[in-house]
Amino acid sequence: MALLDSWSRGSHTAGDVTHPTWRRGSGPGVVLVHEIPGITPKVVAFAEEVVDAGFTVVMPQLFGEAGADITAAAMLRTIPRVCVSREFTTMAAGRTSPIATWLRSLARELHDELGGPGVGALGMCFTGGFALAMMVDPSVVAPVVAQPSLPFPIGRARRADLNLSPGDLATVRQRAADGCAVLGLRYREDAATGTRFDTLSHELGEQFIRVEFPGKGHSTLTEHRQQEGVDRVLAFFTERLRGGV
Fold first, then answer.
1. What is the DSSP string of 66-110?
2. Which CATH number fits domain 2-242: 3.40.50.1820, 2.40.170.20, 3.40.190.10, 2.60.40.420?
3. Which UniProt keywords apply (predicted)?
4. Over the stretch 86-105, which tens digit does the pLDDT of each residue have?
5. pLDDT tens digit sequence for 135-186
6. How far, in Å, CA of 212 to CA of 152, rounded?
7. pTM
8. Could you read off the pLDDT of 110-140 as tens digits, one per residue?
9. Is the distance from CB of 58 to CB of 27 less than 8 angstroms?
10. Nearest to 93, CA basis, from 161, 39, 167
11. Quick count: other Cβ atoms within 10 Å of Cβ 154?
12. I need a surface site. Which of 29, 77, 199, 228 has the fewest CB within 10 A?
């Protein structure tokens, strides 16, 4: 937990759902959603780069032990829990994970507090597509999907699916048409992302900014970090949230 000593711990409640949050920084808001197994040291390190670039970062803790390293034991503890949780849709195509409602509420609250054009949202791996679901709310103006992996890519339909209901997909498509770009990052041969980037290119056209790296890596911003990816994310947030300043 010492890793997060410089972060302020809080919580957010929407409906009957409450999750802890970790916050640091000043400037426009960014909701950064961690990957499995949780808020690891490398997730924190990336979040601190976003803070240092001039943003207020809020990390919701959706599962796992905050600050703990990635270990085989941590993965084995976390994966079964998230797979049976009602907050996440891991196998069904054409559905939005219920946690999206809570994340949208968190984004709205942050925007109401900080003002400006809106907030950024970044999900990675298991939570990668959540930034798209958050984009349904107009408070989110800078969505980033990093190696989105839900639903699990078993079968052609799931490999292409964006973890969005038809209604939410229509809203995302309209927001993109109205000028809200989406930044996507992945390794080109990452099987966990299926064919979702092709779906995003088809649905959003030029408003989907597609950044792909060679090879079979996975975690573009953390475990298999690509500096170009980090730079593209920071530039995207700066452009969308601070007008390029």
1. TTPPP-HHHHHHHHHHHHH-TT--SS-SS---THHHHHHHHHHHH
2. 3.40.50.1820
3. Hydrolase
4. 999 999 999 999 999 999 99
5. 999 999 999 999 999 999 999 999 999 999 999 999 999 999 999 999 999 9
6. 20
7. 0.96
8. 999 999 999 999 999 999 999 999 999 999 9
9. no
10. 161
11. 10
12. 228
Tokens representing 211 are: 């950044």
- Provide CB contacts within 8 A for 115, sequence distance 6+: none
Listed residue (34, 3, 1, 40) closest to 19, CA to CA = 34
In the numeric block, the tokens 């999900």 are attached to: 123
Domain borders along the chain are 2-242
Q: Please provide the DSSP assignment of the chain as one string.
A: -GGGTTSEEEEEEETTEEEEEEEE--SSEEEEE-BTTBS-HHHHHHHHHHHHTT-EEEEE--SS-TTPPP-HHHHHHHHHHHHH-TT--SS-SS---THHHHHHHHHHHHHHHH-SS-EEEEEEGGGTTHHHHHTTSTTEEEEEEES---S---SHHHHH--S--HHHHHHHHHHHHTT--EEEEEETT-GGGTTHHHHHHHHHGGGEEEEEESSS---TTTTT--HHHHHHHHHHHHHHHHTT-
